[in-house]
Structure formats: structure tokens, C-alpha cells
Amino acid sequence: MIHEALFSLWNCPGDLFRTITEEEWLSAIELEEFLHPGEKQLLKKIMELALSYHKIEYFRKMINNQSTILYQVTASKGNQDLQLVTRSNIRPGLYVKAFCDGLDKVLQSYRNTIVEIEDKFLKSPHLTLTYVLGEVQKFDILFEALLRMIRMIENENIHGVLLMSRLYLYTICGIPLIVDAANKIIQSVNTIFYRHLCNWIIYGELVDIHNEFFICDGHCPDENFWYTEQSSEDIVSGKTEAANTFRRRKQFQCPIQKFFINTELLPSIISRDTAETILFLGRIVWIVRNDPKKAEDVGYQLEYKRDIWDGKDVEYYQKIQKLENYPFNLAKFDKTIEECRQRITQVISTLYPILYNYIFCF
Questions:
Q1: Confidence of residue 300 (pLDDT cuts 50, 70, 90)
Q2: Sign (positive/negative) of CA torsion 167, 171, 177, 178?
Q3: Where is the Gamma tubulin complex component protein N-terminal domain (predicted)?
Q4: Contact yes or no for 285/201 (Cβ under 8 A)
Q5: DSSP readout, 304-332?
Q6: Which of 189, 309, 351, 356 has its CB surrounded by the most CB atoms within 10 Å?
Q7: 117-132 per-position pLDDT tens digit
Q8: What are the residues whose beta carbons fall under 8 Å from the beta carbon of 23, sequence distance 6 or more?
Q9: Helix, strand, coil percent values for the chain (each to nearest 5)
């Protein structure tokens, strides 16, 4: 009987997700008619916990297989059974897959516990159901929190970087087991977010096939970005004089790629001002690296992309990347973004004075 219970805690016999009640799930265990009524209650609690584990595993595997989620959640409170059947398509993306990778890491401690109990059972076959329940019951509150996360993604259609701010709430719940689990999951999600952030700020590139980052490519020229005609005599000294000179010149719309902030994907843990700074940094890097004005010339090509970081791109890339190893800290995040802004401002004021005057004199 103990072996069957341990097997159910790890493996999923039969078509679990068409099970309507815990009683049907319990009936899958053989020798039930030989159990004492007290043992039946213990076994039922163990099976309920196993059921929660298999629901989480089912979600994780279905996401990794990029399949449609179809699962049935059955909860029991007192003598009443509450049935919630959810059917929807989870929007594909790297963030939800990273979430599932984090789930896998969190569930590893549960799997290790089952293996340890199995080893003890082989050495001492007289272990009781009370002992098994005592060892695994600590995961009950954890599985409940993980299932709430899954229902949040499913029911509210949480997509992309928004997942970060929703998971952040679990890190301040005050329950150590849930906080540790949330931090592990967030660390997996951070990997995707900070790769997006590094590629945008350092290289001015958006690699976002699922439209999950809050900076978006408009795939068209930016009608709000105007570039001025330039000549050698146009370079003048003095902020006011430079501004007046630029205003007097004939302007035309230059094919600067349009980038914008998708407010629907902006996490609540990142302020709008910080998001605007991030947009500004990536756009300036894109302009310098692609030089859209000269790119219009026939036969003109950039053999090597210009380095606006003046050889410091790896250093600043690593500064941003280090943030992914820790829970989100707004002060550290804003400080790192500000360091990047100061560096870019310093470089373009020295190496690209016309671009600097155009941006900062208006």
C-alpha cells in the first residue's frame, strides 16, 4: 500500500485529468477494501496532494510541447466539491516557457523527498501512511500557490514581461516556502527579460518574435522623428545658437525606424520614466549603428557596425546581465539604467556632436 501511494505521488496512472472527484482518483489504488477508515482518510490526503502535483506537471509539459491547455481542476472543501473546468489557448512565448522551467526547478525538491521516502521504505517496510503524509504535507501550501500562478496565466491571459510583475507579488507574501519558489521561477523568467533588455540597450536590436517585450518595433519609419540637413558650416558653438540654427534649417523625414512602448506590456514594477529612458537608449544605439541617413546613399554599406559604447559594450552588457541573478530590485535596476544613459550621453556628446545637439538642444 505504501508503495502504491509513493508511486501515485510521483507517477500519474490513467487519464488523470478526466477524473471528476478525488474519490475516483482514490479508487485507482488497489487494495482499498482492506484499508481501515482512518487509513483511507490519510491516503485521501496523500492522493489530493499527488493530484495537485500532477496538475502542475501536466501544465508544464503541455506548455513545453506548445500544445493547447486542457485541464480540469477539482477542489474539495468540506463535503462540497467545487469543479472548475478551464479551456483556453496559452499564448506561446519565451516567458511562459521560462516560467515552466522555473516550475521544474521548484518541483525538484518534492521529487527528491519522494525518492528519500522510497529509500527509507525499502530499508524499513513498516513505514506508516502517517509518516508519508508528514513528509509530503509541507508541499501542500506550495502546490496551492503554484496552481494559483497557473490559473492566473490561464484565466487572465498573462503574457510576456507582464509575468514578472505578477510573480513579484509572491515574493512579498511572507511565507518562506512560497517566497523561495517564486524567486526560483522569477530567476528563470529574468533570463529572458534581461536578454531582451541587453540586446536593446547595448546593440539596439529587438529579437522578440512573440511580441513579449514592452519595447516594440513599429516596422515603419517614425513620423515623429525628424532629421536635419547637415553640412560642415552648420556646426556652431553654444547651446542657444545651435538650437536656433537647427530650427531654421530645412527639415525632412528620415527613415528612422519607429520604436515605441507598449503600455499593455509594461510591468508595474518598472516606472514609465524608466521605460522611456530604455526606449531612448536603444533608439540612439540603433541610429548610430545603422546610420540611416548615409544608408540612403547608393552603394553605401556599413562593413562594421559603429560602437557607440566606445569599446565598453561588454562591460555594460555584463552590468545589466548581473541583475538577472537576483530578485527584482527597483533601486539597482534604475541605477544600472542611469549608468547606461550617462555613458551614452558622454560618448555621443564627444563623438557625435551633431546628433547630441539635435537630441538635447530642443
A1: very low
A2: negative
A3: 2-347
A4: yes
A5: S---TTTT-HHHHHHHHHGGGGS---HHH
A6: 189
A7: 888 888 887 878 888 8
A8: none
A9: 65, 10, 25
| 3-class DSSP state of 258 | strand
State which H helix or E strand residue 76 sits in: strand 69-77
Task: Report pLDDT for 260.
Answer: 92
In a 13 Å sphere around the CA of 323, the CA atoms on its Cβ side amount to 22
Q: Provide the grid cell at 269.
A: 514594477
**Average pLDDT of the chain to the nearest whole number:** 75
| Inter-residue contact 97 to 119 (CB < 8 Å) | no
Which amino acid belongs to residue 262? N
Report CA torsion sign: 76, 77, 83, 89: negative
**How far apart are the C-alpha atoms of 211 and 219, rounded to whole Å?**
13
CA distance 297 to 286: 18
pLDDT band (50, 70, 90) for residue 278: very high
53-57 contacts at long range (C-beta below 8 A, 24 or more positions apart) = 53/9, 53/107, 53/110, 53/139, 53/143, 54/12, 54/16, 55/17, 55/147, 55/150, 56/103, 56/107, 56/143, 56/146, 56/147, 56/150, 57/12, 57/107
DSSP letters, 121-142, are HHH-TT--HHHHHHHHGGGHHH
Instruction: Provide the 3-class DSSP secondary structure of residue 65.
Output: coil
3-state secondary structure 160-206: CCHHHHHHHHHHHCCCHHHHHHHHHHHHHHHHHHHHHHHHHHHHCCC
Predicted TM-score of the model (pTM): 0.77
Q: What is the pLDDT of residue 267?
A: 92
pLDDT per residue as tens digits for the range 218-256 = 877 766 665 544 433 443 344 444 445 444 443 434 567
Q: What is the pLDDT of residue 126?
A: 80
**Residue 270 gets which letter from DSSP?**
S
